[in-house]
Write a structure and sequence with these properties.
Radius of gyration: 13 Å
Order of helices and strands: EHEHEHHE
Shape: globular
Number of helices: 4
Amino acid sequence: MDVELHSARPNRSWKKSRATFLRGSYDHGNALADALGSLHYLGVPGRLTAVDLYGDTVMNEQEAEAALAEVPGLRERCTDERHRAALDDLAAVLKECVSTAGSYIWFTGD
């Protein structure tokens, strides 16, 4: 799973989406998918556990703010250090989205 921050709603075409690209997070893709997937299967509610692991999910800055508030609780439920590191990296992208007016986060699943 890749996570990208965009200055506007990203175009679904990767090539065209580069026009709005601000930042990407690619180092923790598998760990992030595992963490969000395991929480989803445990029935943990929230915006982050609703991210489609196999497709695309786009969040605006308001949704990113709600998701950011979920990170500490989700992080506590993780027993794997790789999952915690992935959530920490995601939190940094979410914070940047919240502080960037009109921005979006694009989760691209496998």
